[in-house]
Amino acid sequence: MRVLITGGSGMVGRNLLEHTASNRFSIIAPSSQELNLYDFDATKKFLLKCSPDILIHSAGIVGGIQANIREPFKFLVGNLDIGRNLICAARDVGIKRLINLGSSCMYPRNCSDPLSEEMVLKGELEPTNEGYALAKIVSARLCDYISRENSEYQYKTLIPCNIYGRHDKFDPSQSHLIPAIIHKIQVAISNKKDSVDVWGDGLARREFMYSEDLADAIYSAIDRFETLPSIMNVGLGYDHTINEYYKEVAAIVGFEGQFVNDLSKPVGMARKLVCVKRLNKWGWEAKHSLSEGIEKTYKFYLEKHNK
Ligand SMILES: NC(=O)c1ccc[n+]([C@@H]2O[C@H](COP(=O)([O-])OP(=O)(O)OC[C@H]3O[C@@H](n4cnc5c(N)ncnc54)[C@H](OP(=O)(O)O)[C@@H]3O)[C@@H](O)[C@H]2O)c1
Questions:
Q1: In terms of domains, do 48 and 181 share one?
Q2: How many other CB atoms are there within 10 angstroms of residue 176's CB atom?
């Protein structure tokens, strides 16, 4: 089976390429230079030439809270253009099966209950990543409309919770929570500091899945594509406070200092836990515990920084 992966150089894409299941497929994973999704005509031409049996759309403009606050225009327009071009080009050239990656940012803010798939567009979005969320919602709806208008086209959306792991971004201006914590704590150790600051009170809760598990879920989705719901969360079903993530990383990295909560900094949503009822019914669950995932991520961080 020919599988085309967009975003093959990104964290999700690289974990797909490194996963053992990748050997079962003929995979094409062009870089953004080979396939620039901002260019609709070039995208169409590329898709026509490569003619995959299934397309996994994991390209996008992705960043942490700081980057999203700083550049909402880029996150909205970049992801809108990438999503629209890829999905519409796939439809135009007759690709029948597509898995689009959404994001839990698509859900309304501050819901205390787990976020079920029907809740998309049922409330106000979190302002700190609204641009990104709007673009992701448009792509998911595009997939839904295309499949509804013509049942030969099955364009489905997976909504992963937050992901961390190998090939993550550790640069503080780009990073998500877990790689940011790993980097911060490692820098504190290197500089012999006995305290690390935590944005906000650290009581906000977040759900983080190890990247290899997401890759595993995507290969299961390819294998069992016919039974895959048109939209489905991929999450753990449980979450931790930000303070707990700091403690877990500190235990693995070996940091024995203090954490100081900086209440002047933004924290985003109080909770963002996706509902995994549909996922469990479909028959998949993540395999890595938090400590296993953080250990592997820390090992990758050390290799990357030659430590
Ligand atoms: N990371 C998470 O926590 C998370 C959680 C939920 C959902 N997701 C979704 O998963 C997908 C992948 O995320 P990620 O974390 O792997 O992001 P990432 O590491 O930032 O990778 C993004 C990928 O998109 C590619 N890309 C960007 N602009 C492009 C363009 N104009 N044309 C073609 N390719 C382009 C990049 O290619 P270059 O490197 O060549 O620029 C890169 O391969 C995204 O849709 C994201 O919304 C991620």
A1: no
A2: 21
